[in-house]
Amino acid sequence: MKKIAVIPGDGIGPEVTAEAVRVLRHIAALNDVKLELTEFDWGADKFLKEGITLPEGGLELLSGFDAILAGAFGDPRVPSNKHAEDILLGMRRGLDLYINLRPVRLLHERLTPLRDRKTNDIDFVVFRENTEGAYCGAGGFLKRGTADEIALQEEVNTRSGVERIIVAAFEYAKAEGRKRVTMADKSNVQRFGGDLWQRVFKEVAKEYQGIETNHQYVDAMAMFMVLDPGQYDVIVSNNLFGDILTDLGAAIQGGLGLAASGNIHPGRVSLFEPVHGSAPPLAGKGIANPLGAILTSAMMLKYLGFPKQSDQIERAVGDAIAATETTKDLGGQLSTQQAGSAIIERLK
Ligand code: NAD
Ligand code: IPM
Ligand code: MN
Questions:
Q1: Which residue, of 101, 116, 195, 318, has the fewest CB within 10 Å?
Q2: Which residues line ligand 1 (CB under 6 A)?
Q3: Could you tell me whether strands 234-237 and 270-274 are parallel, antiparallel, or unpaired per DSSP bridges?
Q4: Tens digit of each residue's pLDDT (9 = 90 or more) over 85-141
Q5: What does each C-alpha distance from 221 to 77, 215, 235, 249 come to in angstroms?
Q6: Which is the closest atom of ligand 1 to the Cα of 72?
Q7: Which residues are catalytic?
Q8: Distance between CA atoms of 255 and 114, rounded to whole angstroms?
Q9: CA atoms of 173 and 130, how far apart (whole Å)
Q10: How far is the CA of 179 from the centre of ligand 2 (A)?
């Protein structure tokens, strides 16, 4: 029996999560896999009504689960983004989910905006550091609101934090038979943090002799990801660069509606969520693509020890895309629910 906490969140979060949950329940029933799903109403509505973001004791509560499946957090009624920061970044930091694993894989050549790219030209995985960097929340204002205002926004890079994400990237490459690990940074400008990343990368690489390594400045990587995505196998980067690169990665594999992610601390409760946000303009219309959330649930099943069921879902998604049984963003005509049903039909 696996216990899963479900946090649909805001905007399109509940719509796409509902489809991921339907798929999960279906595949569990078919395969005699026992999943116990418990839903939590954390998000903008709760914050606006009750002033509660991440409830007290929330992290301890989540620690009793095997995994967390989340939708998205962010709502125009909360311009400060306070609830999303408390809940999402609160889980990532508070549960020490230091690996943000974001695969970029082209499931069908029709989906990429890049010209003449085949499916095997776009198939890599990004290891995004997920607990520090520019997301540490350190900084402050001086003379706020005056002409002399100063805003400081700090970035934290710890030796142990940098090392564990780089090791995770190499371990993944070794386990999955990937031939190259590429690190992206901006060490030509960010002399201190960049220097630490460079040194640790070289040290760790020595322990993985069979794996090729290379380094790119992140601006160049953004360019090469468009011009020559086939060169990448495993990318490792810091929190902020990883965030930006994975929206670009999502775009070249068919859009944010398709991109899945896992926030992982190996061996501990981990959080799975689509890469996309709450997409306010789409919310409530039944048009959001649920495949990112569904592929996310497949990632979660793999993490929980059900690789066969995970593969089944991925295959069903690939087949539905090939048949253009998708929402509009992928060229189909289906609603969010119908797109979820198209996956379930293929699992029967
Ligand atoms: P977004 O990812 O929500 O949406 C950007 C655009 O991508 C959408 O307008 C839409 O065109 C497309 N898109 C995204 N998901 C889609 C889907 N499932 N199907 C079809 N098209 C889809 O990014 P944003 O507009 O920059 O942010 C909106 C809110 O979401 C903000 O509050 C932001 O902070 C938050 N956000 C949350 C998360 C998260 O919870 N993990 C991630 C990213 C953004
Ligand atoms: C993501 C999102 C989040 C991030 C936001 C909503 C805090 O963009 O998960 O990619 O920046 O990590
Ligand atoms: Mn992002």
A1: 116
A2: 12, 16, 72-74, 81, 84, 88, 256-257, 273, 276-282, 288-289, 292, 329
A3: unpaired
A4: 999 999 999 999 999 999 999 999 999 999 999 999 999 999 999 999 999 999 999
A5: 35, 9, 10, 11
A6: 40
A7: 135, 186, 219, 243, 247
A8: 12
A9: 19
A10: 29
